[in-house]
């Protein structure tokens, strides 16, 4: 896929010809009140992609922010690229189109630009039971919703290469995008090479190392256990490169992913950081610079998605101890 690089128009052309902006606003853990201000600030700063998901419970607020931005004449709907994701119960047989329609209603939109299978694993509504729907069946549902036009592009998230291969082998609508955990300390070279070979664009999530992940609280009030992990933002080579380029460590981590040909969706609800994270078009990191950054050889997945353990489509089964 072709790439154009300059602020708001910087985009990746997907295999169906749709242009996907290279930088989007992440919104996991952004509360409805926070996300309205964040979306507005991001669009005013030049962002054109907003990344949400049914499970983030902020689609309605994002819809409100978009509606107001369009009404105020700041941006046109067709200039925006909205990504949302089907949660695990929506992947169960017969549930996907209803899931997409429910998201569209909350977003107050006629279509989304990208609809992703948030996970490869289907569950029942309260996630108390696995639904043993193979990824082939999940992808058949994505093929069907793509053909309705309610989603301009379709893709997957947290799927492994083997699962993607099985979906592609069906010969239906291709997978346009794969959204995966990807950052300096989990660089995902194999996955990126695999996707390039199959003309699938890749979006990096947790590009900053997701420093806020430890605050995540389930609707039940329960917190998750996160294994200790080194901080990408404090990496000594990142800090050195930031000083050399008069940039911040966050900007270096974001530029690292852009210079690998990836899309990024940094999350912030802080207006100055939202602007900082978009201000990455005036420098690049060379191939040697990338190699230097990767000298640490750290490769530690932060998001093991433990709820998938034991499911027949657990994407990370061979990484669990
Ligand atoms: P991230 O973007 O790597 O990091 C976000 C965290 O970094 C927040 O705590 C934010 O705090 C802070 N931050 C933002 N900009 C900063 C800066 N310039 N300097 C220092 N700290 C900064 O992590 P993420 O939110 O986990 O991932 C990004 C997005 O990817 C998510 O929001 C979501 O849209 C998506 N995602 C998808 C999946 C999936 O399964 N598909 C999983 C995880 C995430 P403040 O808000 O306080 O600025």
UniProtKB/TrEMBL annotation:
PROSITE patterns: ALDOKETO_REDUCTASE_1, ALDOKETO_REDUCTASE_3. It comes from Caenorhabditis remanei. InterPro entries: AKR, Aldo/ket_reductase_CS, NAD(P)_OxRdtase_dom_sf, NADP_OxRdtase_dom. It holds the Pfam family Aldo_ket_red. The active site is at 56 (proton donor). GO terms for molecular function: oxidoreductase activity. The lineage of its organism: Eukaryota, Metazoa, Ecdysozoa, Nematoda, Chromadorea. The record marks 85 as: Lowers pKa of active site Tyr. Gene3D superfamilies: NADP-dependent oxidoreductase domain. It comes from the Eukaryota. Residues 23-296 form the NADP-dependent oxidoreductase domain. This is NADP-dependent oxidoreductase domain-containing protein. SUPFAM superfamilies: NAD(P)-linked oxidoreductase.
């Amino acid at each position: 896929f072709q790439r154009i690089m300059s602020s708001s128009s910087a985009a990746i052309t997907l295999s169906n010809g749709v242009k996907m902006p290279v930088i989007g606003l992440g919104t996991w853990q952004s509360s409805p009140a926070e996300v309205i201000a964040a979306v507005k600030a991001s669009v005013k700063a030049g962002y054109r992609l907003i990344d949400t998901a049914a499970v983030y419970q902020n689609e309605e607020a994002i819809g409100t922010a978009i509606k107001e931005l369009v009404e105020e004449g700041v941006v046109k709907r067709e200039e925006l690229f909205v990504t949302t994701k089907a949660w695990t119960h929506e992947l169960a047989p017969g549930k996907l189109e209803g899931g997409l329609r429910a998201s569209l209603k909350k977003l107050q939109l006629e279509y989304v630009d990208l609809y992703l299978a948030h996970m490869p694993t289907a569950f029942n509504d309260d996630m108390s039971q696995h639904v043993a729907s193979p990824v082939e069946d999940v992808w058949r549902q994505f093929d069907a919703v793509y053909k309705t036009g309610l989603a301009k592009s379709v893709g997957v998230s947290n799927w492994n290469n083997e699962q993607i291969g099985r979906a592609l082998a069906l010969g239906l609508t291709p997978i346009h995008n794969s959204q995966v955990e990807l950052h300096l300390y989990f660089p995902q070279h194999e996955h990126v090479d695999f996707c390039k070979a199959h003309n699938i664009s890749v979006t990096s999530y947790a590009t900053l190392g997701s420093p806020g992940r430890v605050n995540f609280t389930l609707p039940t009030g329960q917190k998750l256990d996160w294994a200790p992990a080194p901080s990408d933002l404090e990496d000594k080579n990142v800090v050195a490169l930031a000083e050399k380029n008069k940039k911040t460590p966050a900007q270096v981590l974001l530029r690292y992913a852009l210079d690998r040909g990836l899309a990024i969706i940094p999350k912030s609800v802080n207006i100055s950081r939202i602007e900082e994270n978009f201000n990455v078009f005036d420098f690049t990191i060379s191939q040697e610079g990338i190699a230097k950054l990767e000298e640490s050889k750290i490769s530690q997945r932060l998001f093991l998605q433990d709820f998938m353990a034991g499911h027949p489509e657990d994407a990370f089964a061979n990484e669990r101890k």
